[in-house]
Amino acid sequence: MSEPDQQRVVIVTGAAGAMGSEAVRLLAGRGAHVLATDADADGLERMAAGLTGAAGEVATRVADIADEAAVQGLVEAAVDRWGGLDGLFNIAGIVGDVSLTLEATTENWDRIMRVNVRSVWLTIKHCLPHLVDRGGGAIVSTGSYLAIRGVEGLGAYGASKHAVIGLSRTVAVEYAAQEVRVNVVCPGAMDTHMIRATYDVVCPGDPVRAEEIVLGAIPQRRLAQPAELAAVGTWLILDAPSHLTGQVIPVDGGRSAA
Ligand SMILES: NC(=O)c1ccc[n+]([C@@H]2O[C@H](COP(=O)([O-])OP(=O)(O)OC[C@H]3O[C@@H](n4cnc5c(N)ncnc54)[C@H](O)[C@@H]3O)[C@@H](O)[C@H]2O)c1
């Protein structure tokens, strides 16, 4: 991508969430125009209201990101408004129920796969032609420590995040010659409600002890701040060398290195 920041157009999914709202703030702060989408209408409104002095424009759109017509609609909205598309930052995701495989339900499996995998497939599929039209672009999707390791109680979630890597590597190879870069950022444990939803399986009934155990597995002994993950994704979209594609980048305080 050779366009200046001011002309970059980026779609951010999960934009009302902890990491998503930081991504919108950082990208718009750099002058990119951002189409910020989420299923949570109130959360999107709060996120937009909290943005002050952004150099780029931010448009919000409420959508179920696993619905194909909705995805097509929001991609068209971004292209109609700003004349093209340069980047996609997939952040929407759910953790679902936390339970061992024998107790886990097929409904939970389907729900997680729909949000965490189908959405990434649909957004990549519908954004790609516009990135190619622009002469290249960048796609970043959000994996997890569980995209590269297994953790008990999170089989469907882990499978969904492994799938994000599989698809991203494939698209990276397929569209490298068209200068579309595709990478995955993997949070370990971020300081959001999502990590706390897993505490009951880490140490049933004792969230304080559960957090000690989680922190004990992280060499830096702290949770990631959502802005740290958003910063790496923003760098991958706006700044990274064009040779950087098809990679999985853990941002986990050294957890996956241990
Ligand atoms: N929090 C962690 O510790 C952690 C660890 C590893 C990976 N992750 C991943 O990081 C990403 C962000 O996590 P977070 O903690 O900021 O979560 P979050 O819950 O704050 O944000 C996720 C957002 O996705 C949106 N969303 C869910 N289903 C949707 C749908 N069908 N359509 C549109 N939007 C939908 C939610 O409304 C929410 O705003 C997720 O992909 C998550 O799986 C988080």
Please describe the topology of this protein.
Layout: E1 9-13, H1 18-29, E2 33-38, H2 41-49, E3 58-62, H3 68-82, E4 87-90, H4 106-133, E5 137-142, H5 155-174, E6 180-187, H6 193-196, H7 199-202, H8 207-216, H9 226-238, E7 248-251
Parallel strand pairs: 1-2, 1-4, 2-3, 4-5, 5-6, 6-7
Helix pairs in contact: 1-9, 3-4, 4-5
Residues 14, 16-20, 38-40, 43, 64-66, 91-94, 115, 142, 144, 187, 189-190, 192, 194-195, 226 line the site of nicotinamide-adenine-dinucleotide.
Offer a few descriptive terms:
single chain, 258 residues, alpha/beta, Rossmann fold, 2 domains, 45% helix, binds nicotinamide-adenine-dinucleotide
Summarize this structure briefly.
With 258 residues, the protein is an alpha/beta fold. It has nine helices and seven strands.
Describe the 3D structure.
With 258 residues, this protein is of the alpha/beta class. It folds into 2 domains: 5-188 and 226-250, 3-Layer(aba) Sandwich (Rossmann fold); 192-223, no CATH class. The chain contains 9 helices and 7 strands. The chain has helices spanning 18-29, 41-49, 68-82, 106-133, 155-174, 193-196, 199-202, 207-216, 226-238; strands spanning 9-13, 33-38, 58-62, 87-90, 137-142, 180-187, 248-251. Strands 3-2-1-4-5-6-7 form a 7-stranded parallel β-sheet, sandwiched between helices. Helix 2 links the parallel strand 2 and strand 3. Helix 1 (18-29) crosses helix 9 (226-238), helix 3 (68-82) runs parallel beside helix 4 (106-133) and helix 4 packs parallel to helix 5 (155-174). The longest helix has 28 residues, at 106-133. It is globular and about 50 Å long. The chain starts with 8 loop residues before the first strand and ends in a 7-residue tail after the last strand. The relative contact order is 0.15. The model has no long low-confidence stretch (mean pLDDT 96). Bound molecules: nicotinamide-adenine-dinucleotide. Nicotinamide-adenine-dinucleotide binds next to helix 1 and helix 6.
